[in-house]
Amino acid sequence: MDENEKIVNNKIKVSESKPLVSSPTDVTSESTKVSGIIKPVELIVDTGKPIKNNKLVLDSDKVTNEQLSEILAKPAKRIKNVPTVISTDGLNDEDSIRLMQEETYRRTIENERRVDIESAFQDELKRRQNFNKKIQLMKDEFNLYVKNTYPMIVKDKFITSGEERTVKESIQRGKELLQIPNAELQKNKVDRLAREKLRKLSENELKINKLTPSEIQTFLEDDVMLEQKVKLKSNPEIENLSPTQKTKQDISDLEISMGRVIIPHRDIIESSESDFDINSITNSSDILILTNRDKITDTEIKKKLELEKLRLSLLDDSSEKDYILKYT
Known about the structure:
Layout: H1 2-16, H2 30-38, E1 42-43, E2 55-56, H3 65-73, H4 93-149, H5 151-154, H6 164-204, H7 219-234, H8 243-258, E3 268-270, E4 288-290, H9 298-313
Parallel strand pairs: 3-4
Antiparallel strand pairs: 1-2
């Protein structure tokens, strides 16, 4: 299994580099580990009011992509024994018959894999439908929050007065109804991965009709890896990054989305810890990449711009001014 494991691990690493957790006496299976890793982060308080860092990060959530890659590439343990295939150097009549038997076995395994991959595509469609329902629930929850907080401003624009309690109960029922299909979809994903690892183990036991590295399929492992990457991306609390580390990670993701490396003399990286003056005024011709934008309110920006204009108006013509050159 060493060679097969090495190929799977290499393919998972390639997928990971692409842009986009009992009782001490119980033995935890690999499928249970994966299910615990990719499960959603729990909320401390379930409320429509925005609460910063309102998440309970468990030890099972703090799993890096590298650790998950090792779990996905690790061979499964077979429960039932299978006949050992005799290894031969040449293909005599007996080996020719065995070759045909292994070919039939390989096709059976591939058909089973194709069914699981098709099932994964169908589950992805259901997941997207559930995601749209979740977004709608978030909109309704926000509208309810605005209605309760600023009733004289929004009035009956989103929710009719007197229906707040009904809307709140409807949102709660919607959340509860979404938990069941989402948990089922995740269970299906883990079950498919468990079956796939057993199939790879069976394929590796073939002695004559073996798979080439290009024929080894890692679609189902990539599916689990993708879900974990999405989880880490939407929950930065898991990695416990400092503001500087978070900014560096955002810049790295930005470079991937831009399709090029950020050049210091061409781009201005504005953040709370940058070397550039965040209070300085910018022009329409400047190339500005602003990170940590949520920490600066529109009111603060407006005040800083007015102060910058006043500062520029008090400068003499002979004074040195800050400027930015853009080469085209």
